[in-house]
Write a sequence for this structure.
């Protein structure tokens, strides 16, 4: 019945499915705002509600993604909007930008190589290896880059989510354990490994933690975008 | 309302130029060129930061919902997760942990320099 509804009234179905996605997401975001649980991530929550719903109603992913094209279209301008924090953070970091850029480049190159090789060794699927090597970058940019490099963007989205939760929950303790205690170093490490989720948690520690974490978030996104289009094809060549 | 239209205008211009850059230079996706162009516009003061800030922050706050369709693609991967779930988790955990260690350790070692104090006071005095 539902599938006929979708094929007979495509526009109405589009509106209903898009609104359902937005409402579920907003509900989860409101809950997280209220209770402040890290694991109550709006995206995770929305997907875990919608996936069973799609399975129950026998709407396949192809149909779902066609009906939510509007959200996909808005992703491009949303990424452009990240230019404002980029501009703001660059004003903040002008004292250290050389050191920070060098450290982040090193970290990004190491993590892309290790992720790609580990994934090829354990899973042996190139599109999954691409997806996993782009997991240390904020979600919208990770997804865009993965698609450009013919990886599987849904795996990227999940890997970024898991990396975010892991770093937010265990990152600060781990860093203290290995003797990394300054707000700068903790902020940069968590921001580049755990992006928005990590930054949201770290900002509660101190404003300086939060500032450096968002610097790392933005700067590592730009650097990954510059590095990955030549590093990943190189790795792909190595394996074929 | 004017500021909303202004922000949409500036972002659209940046995105269009981003598309052009992507067409001419390839390499980066159009939206990322757009992001850099937009930051550059603000840096050069070609457009007003005060006018775009509020709407821009609203965009960023709500952009997460645009990522849901991409994440929903996981529905096609139940088999992969069943087969390689552990391997996926191992790769994600170990590399996140490597990144935390590399960046944390290097930053602790190299960013705590004498000009640390100087830069801090400059920021404070602003």
């Amino acid at each position: 019945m539902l599938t006929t509804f979708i094929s007979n009234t495509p526009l109405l179905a589009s509106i209903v499915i898009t609104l359902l996605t937005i409402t579920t997401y907003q509900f989860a975001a409101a809950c997280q705002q209220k209770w402040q649980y890290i694991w109550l991530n709006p995206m995770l929550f929305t997907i875990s509600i919608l996936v069973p719903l799609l399975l129950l109603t026998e709407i396949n992913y192809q149909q779902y993604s066609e009906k939510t094209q509007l959200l996909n279209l808005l992703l491009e301008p949303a990424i452009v909007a990240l230019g404002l924090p980029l501009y703001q953070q660059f004003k903040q970091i002008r004292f250290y930008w050389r050191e920070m850029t060098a450290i982040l480049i090193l970290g990004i190159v190491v993590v892309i190589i290790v992720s790609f090789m580990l994934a090829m060794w354990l899973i042996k699927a190139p599109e999954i290896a691409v997806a996993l090597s782009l997991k240390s970058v904020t979600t919208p940019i990770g997804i865009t880059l993965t698609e450009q490099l013919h990886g599987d963007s849904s795996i990227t989205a999940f890997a970024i989510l898991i990396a975010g939760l892991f770093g937010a929950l265990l990152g600060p303790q781990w860093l203290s354990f290995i003797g990394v205690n300054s707000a700068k170093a903790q902020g940069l490490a968590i921001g580049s490994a755990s992006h928005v989720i990590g930054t949201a948690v770290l900002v509660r520690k101190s404003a300086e933690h939060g500032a450096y974490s968002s610097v790392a978030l933005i700067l590592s996104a730009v650097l990954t975008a510059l590095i990955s289009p030549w590093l990943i094809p190189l790795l792909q060549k190595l394996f074929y | 309302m004017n500021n909303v239209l202004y922000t949409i205008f500036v972002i659209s211009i940046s995105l269009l130029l981003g598309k052009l850059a992507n067409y001419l230079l390839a390499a980066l996706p159009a939206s990322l060129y757009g992001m850099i162009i937009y930051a550059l516009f603000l840096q050069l003061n070609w457009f007003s930061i005060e006018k775009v800030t509020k709407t821009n922050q609203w965009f960023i706050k709500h952009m997460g919902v645009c990522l849901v369709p991409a994440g929903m693609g996981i529905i096609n991967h139940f088999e992969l997760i069943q087969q390689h779930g552990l391997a996926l988790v191992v790769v994600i955990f170990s590399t996140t942990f490597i990144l935390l260690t590399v960046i944390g350790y290097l930053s602790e070692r190299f960013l705590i320099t004498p000009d640390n104090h100087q830069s801090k006071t400059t920021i404070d005095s602003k």
About this structure: Residues 2-73 of chain A form one domain. The mean pLDDT of chain A is 88. The two ends of chain A are 47 Å apart (CA to CA). Chain A touches chain B through 100 residues (CB under 8 Å).
